[in-house]
Amino acid sequence: MERRxxxxxxxxxxxxxxxxxxPTAQAVYDEVNKxxxxxxxxxxxxxxxxxxxxxxxxxxxxxxxxxxxxxTLSTHSHLECRICKxxxxxxxxxxxxxxxxxxxxxxxxxIDRNLILSGLCPQCKETxxxxxxxx
Amino acid sequence: MERRxxxxxxxxxxxxxxxxxxPTAQAVYDEVNKxxxxxxxxxxxxxxxxxxxxxxxxxxxxxxxxxxxxxTLSTHSHLECRICKxxxxxxxxxxxxxxxxxxxxxxxxxIDRNLILSGLCPQCKETxxxxxxxx
DNA sequence: CTAGATGCAAACGTTTTGCAAATCT
DNA sequence: AGATTTGCAAAACGTTTGCATCTAG
Lengths: 135, 135
Known about the structure:
The structure is a homodimer.
Chain A: H1 7-19, H2 25-35, H3 41-53, E1 58-60, E2 68-70, E3 77-81, E4 87-90, H4 96-106, E5 109-120, H5 122-132
Parallel strand pairs in A: 3-5
Antiparallel strand pairs in A: 1-2, 3-4
The structure holds a DNA duplex.
């Protein structure tokens, strides 16, 4: 099962890198579609999976809505606005002792993590305060 | 918009409490269905949302697959097996300073969190080792 | 030449919605 | 009585799959 290089594949990867704000599969599709209109949505999904598999991209599981993709591979976490669903990076990582503790506590191995914080972004907070007073 | 008490609602809540291992909506439906066969799936979904809203239940967003529900309201985290998808509790919480740091770093407010760890549970690890050798 | 990749449409699993009938207060 | 809730079926949503065709190596 050798892996081939295709225009579609490179476009999917470079789009996630360029767009850079944690696009969803749909957003990647829309973007690639602009410059390569014949691409199919399934191709985008297939390539996103594949690229995650090859660790060229990371999957970001949001609290609501579709999966997002991240081209920043170094360890960090995400913060999602509860209202506009925007996702921003947060520089959080855990020490090895943290993972060791979890292993001991649970018996699980090969621990990975997906820390997703949620909150109100400054803009949405503003809107809430103006729009409808303090509920 | 006063909220009524209904048999269905109490059954949904008590089922999540009794079953206790982070059931999905489907699992709750199946369980309630045993003792109250006329219940509709939409009713289960509606009541789960409603109970989360009232903070009588917590939503657990898994890395793959459907949402799970948790009747343990005190702060803790979850660990999901990458193979069998089982979810177990882990006793992890963050200090206030952690949230303060995030607020300063990002400008977001009202920070909440969903920490979902993934790993290999002891049973699945066993299976992997026996079943196909070291890949 | 041929395994792997594509594009399309249809299938999938989960969740939400519209609506008339039933139920709680 | 009147607003809320129910059960049903259909729709919505994100994602995956089957398949015939195309393409990179």
